[in-house]
Amino acid sequence: MELFPNGGFVRLRSRARDKYVHADADASGVSLRPLGAAPSVNAVWKPEHWPGEEDIFLLQGAAYGRYLAVSDQDAPPGHRGVRAVQRDYNSPHVDAPFMWTAFRVDADQNYVRLHNHQRWLRANGRHRYWNNVVTVDTRNGSLTTMMQWRVEAIPVSPQPLPLLPPPQQPTIHVSRGLFKRRAKVHPFAGRMIRHVQMDDDGFIHDKPEFNFNDYSVSNLRTELALRQGDENITLCLRAGIYALAIPLITDLPHNTDPLDIIVVTTGSPGFEMLEYPQFDEPPEP
Fold this sequence. Notes:
The chain is globular and about 60 Å long. Strands 14, 15, 16, 17, 18 and 19 form a six-stranded mixed sheet that branches. A four-stranded antiparallel sheet has the order 1-12-9-8, with no helix packed on it. The protein has a four-stranded antiparallel sheet with strand order 6-7-11-10, with no helix packed on it. By secondary structure, it is mainly beta. It has two domains: 149 residues, Trefoil (Trefoil (Acidic Fibroblast Growth Factor, subunit A)), CATH 2.80.10; 87 residues, Phosphatidylinositol 3-kinase Catalytic Subunit, Chain A, domain 1 (Ubiquitin-like (UB roll)). The longest helix is centred in the last third of the chain and has 12 residues. The protein has two helices and 20 strands.
């Protein structure tokens, strides 16, 4: 479908709730969130057409590289259906839970319903507005606006987005006097970083794995630059063996799952092929 251009970027805005499908920071959950004054990359999805099937596509999260998928987890109380989740792309089958088809319901305003094997992506919380988990349901697919989404195209740019700066170290306060309390620091347990280097000819070279005890994308880039002996690098994520590599432009997800990082030399042919969402234009009202 033309609303989901292969390799473009889109946002999905609920017709009923006026909020957006948002990739949660744990790189697993999917929720409804307002766009905010500064548009978040977590609300951006990259369509990828299934080979030979223009009407079937995947939606890859621009934040963590994982794909919008149907789970077998029951929805929380107050929600309908099962949870929508972010999932690595490790299965090549067309009946996989991350294959979507769009059906127009309002051509003038680009509203669609998103279908996966007789199941429909839906918002929740029409009356209980605090119920913000995105789910997938089989009921009332053609009747309710909770299953209707406005597709907002986002311009594509070759210009890299600036990385978030490293977080400041928290200030630790210890009370003075007779009853002193020691401030406890609970460090992040860390995650395994599996990284490879892409040379100028597009060949991949494996590099040693290492444990990284931080969430900061800027600190990860600094660590990899030291290990590569090269400051002129750009980081990409690959969420699954069949996943497309996507530029890493936000802090790491709040989990301990290993990450597969592709290190690309800035200015190389591989770097020139990378594309980024452009946030200069606000969404339509």
